Amino acid sequence: MRLTQPEPNLADGVVELRPWTHADVPALVAALDGDAVISAWLDQVPQPFTADNGVRFVDGSNARWAEGTHASFALVDAVTGELLGSAGAHVVPEGHDVVEIDYWVAEAGRGRGAATRAAVLVSRWAIESVGAERVQLRADVENVGSCRVAEKAGFVREGVMRSVRRNDRQDGRRIDWALYSLLPGDLDRPT
Fold first, then answer.
1. Would you say 98 and 134 are in contact if contact means Cβ atoms under 8 Å apart?
2. pLDDT in tens, 102-117
3. pLDDT at 89 over 90
């Protein structure tokens, strides 16, 4: 299974998922630098987040597309083009046609359904165009917003994956993951 950039971009009339460009770096820095919500949940995002971090993020995102195992999209407002966040997917090694998705949403995109819309678009693409037999999503069990996104996007909660990883920005709290999945037959199931 290989992830290739979709043509045209993934969109639903409200949000669009498109490749990252260097022109996105200022908006990326504005979204990530000092954002308390993103900083708390995504402790691997450097803080402060600088233009150099943004260039490395864009370059790394585009390089991973070439490998065919990772996809990274800029999540933008479909009408204005405003950067709302990021959505991505990667093939789970030895996962038997399993794709795991992820996302983050900037302050400008919160409360607008952007994360849920992105999760639906990426999941549908992974199943219908890439051939994934399962799409999975992990959310920190304490991140209520991310758990709600998974449920609103039609994912089924399977349980909790206990972890040894710790979040240094939350006083070393151990991160346990709520594990969600979506199968091809779940795409059009009412949520």
1. yes
2. 999 999 899 999 999 9
3. yes
- Strand order of the sheet with strand 70-77? 10-11, 15-18, 70-77, 83-91, 98-105, 134-140, 177-182, 156-161
Q: Is the pLDDT of residue 179 over 70?
A: yes
pLDDT tens for each residue of 90-144: 999 887 799 999 999 999 899 999 999 999 999 999 999 999 999 999 999 999 9
Phi, psi dihedral angles at 25 (to 5 degrees): -55, -50
Domain map (residue ranges) of the chain: 10-138
Over the range 22-49, which residues count as b (16 or more CB within 10 Å of their CB) and which as e?
eebbebbbbbbbebeebbebbbebebeb
Tokens for 178, please give them.
Answer: 């709520």
Say whether domain 10-138 belongs to CATH 3.40.630.30.
yes
Alpha carbons 145 and 148: distance in angstroms, whole number: 5
Rg (CA), the chain: 16
Reduced to 3 states, what is the DSSP secondary structure of residue 54?
helix
Q: 96 and 133 in contact (C-beta within 8 Å)?
A: yes
Res. 21: pLDDT tops 80: yes
Q: What is the 3-state secondary structure (H, E, C) of 110-161?
A: CCCCHHHHHHHHHHHHHHHHHCCCEEEEEEECCCHHHHHHHHHCCCEEEEEE
